[in-house]
């Protein structure tokens, strides 16, 4: 669909061809044609953005994700093939602050429509209530970051939490903004984009109601997770996330932090330490064993794999709700 095709030098084309097709994961059926089709070609940074593009774009878009299924999105390094792909697309949809290499690649590209999801809703800082313990983690800065490049130093500017898609209300706000951007960039199909956006927002509102109702009557509102991804979700439904954010996924938690979490678990009736599917469960199991707690999955929905508890965003989020209900003693 891109009428502004740019010519790639023969050398660059040869380099891209030599890399093969493995560097990209297409959400469409034809990865080789991604970015060079008669549809509205969208490059999405990772699954939650690709899902929005597919749901809103429908049959009119060709969506390619820069992050492969099962790949930890925060650790993504952009390949030469992906850079060329980006240059040849109609739109780029990403969430600034989550994947630094994506931010840089899109910033330097000449793609006409750049949609930053972080600008379409409000981001907040959740570092204070997400386990940012400066006295225990001497290398953390004022926003709960560590200065050791461990791959999870992914808070947005000024310490803001980028995981907005885990709050169905904020995700719906992003969806509305993406829909408007698609309408403007591809006006021939604006009516369909508007209709599809409304349908998606309706489903997200229904999901919000399920969470609101499902978590209303609970024994405790505190949950422990190894990944500080659920601050927006916790804030939406009046929960408290106790996370070990800032620790390398492969490292052991400090004795002081384990003791603190044991005290928190006892005081607040916590039963479960949550871990996610795309990183090691070692930390969660260590904490659970030391504190006498169970473990379970709370999926940040950063990618869908065979290990995911569902085939798409909505199914995995409903599995998350069921896991939270069990852990929090919701009736």
Describe the structure.
This protein is of the alpha/beta class and 331 residues long. 38% of the residues lie in helices and 11% in strands. It has 10 helices and 9 strands. The strands form 2 sheets. Strands 1-3-2-4-5 form a 5-stranded mixed β-sheet, sandwiched between helices. The protein has a 4-stranded parallel β-sheet with strand order 7-6-8-9, sandwiched between helices. The longest helix has 25 residues. The termini are far apart.
Number of helices: 10
Find the count of extended strands (DSSP E, 2+ residues): 9
Q: In sequence order, what are the helices and strands, one letter per element?
A: HEEHEHEHEHHEHEHEHEH
Distance between the termini: 51 Å
Strand-residue proportion: 5-15%
Report the mean per-residue pLDDT as an integer: 81
> How many strands, what sense, and barrel or not for the largest sheet?
5 strands, mixed
Q: Shape from CA axes?
A: globular
Radius of gyration: 20 Å
Model regions low in confidence, pLDDT < 50 over at least 5 residues: 2-33, 128-156
Helical fraction equals: 25-40%
């Amino acid at each position: 669909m891109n009428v502004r095709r740019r010519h790639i030098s023969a050398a660059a084309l040869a380099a891209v061809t030599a890399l093969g097709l493995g560097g990209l994961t297409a959400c469409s059926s034809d990865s080789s044609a991604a970015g060079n089709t008669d549809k509205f070609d969208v490059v999405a940074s990772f699954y939650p953005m690709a899902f929005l593009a597919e749901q809103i774009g429908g049959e009119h878009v060709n969506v390619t994700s820069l992050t492969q299924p099962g790949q930890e999105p925060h650790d993504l390094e952009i390949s030469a093939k992906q850079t060329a792909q980006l240059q040849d697309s109609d739109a780029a949809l990403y969430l600034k602050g989550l994947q630094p290499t994506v931010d840089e690649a899109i910033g330097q590209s000449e793609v006409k429509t750049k949609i930053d999801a972080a600008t379409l809703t409000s981001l907040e800082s959740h570092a204070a209530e997400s386990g940012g313990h400066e006295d225990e983690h001497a290398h953390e800065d004022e926003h709960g970051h560590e200065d050791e490049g461990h791959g999870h130093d992914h808070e947005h500017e000024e310490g803001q939490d980028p995981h907005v898609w885990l709050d169905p209300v904020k995700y719906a706000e992003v969806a509305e903004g993406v829909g408007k951007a698609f309408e403007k960039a591809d006006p021939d199909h604006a009516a369909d984009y508007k209709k599809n956006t409304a349908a998606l927002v309706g489903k997200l509102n229904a999901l919000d109601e399920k969470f609101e109702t499902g978590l209303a009557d609970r024994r405790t509102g505190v949950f422990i997770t190894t990944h500080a991804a659920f601050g927006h979700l916790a804030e939406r439904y009046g929960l408290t996330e106790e996370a070990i954010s800032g620790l390398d996924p492969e490292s052991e938690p400090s004795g002081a932090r384990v003791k603190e979490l044991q005290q928190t678990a006892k005081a607040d009736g916590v039963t479960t330490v949550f871990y996610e599917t795309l990183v090691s469960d070692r930390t969660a199991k260590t904490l659970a064993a030391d504190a006498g707690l169970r473990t379970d999955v709370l999926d940040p929905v950063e990618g869908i794999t065979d290990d995911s508890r569902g085939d798409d965003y909505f199914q995995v989020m409903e599995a998350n709700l069921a896991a939270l209900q069990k852990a929090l003693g919701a009736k």
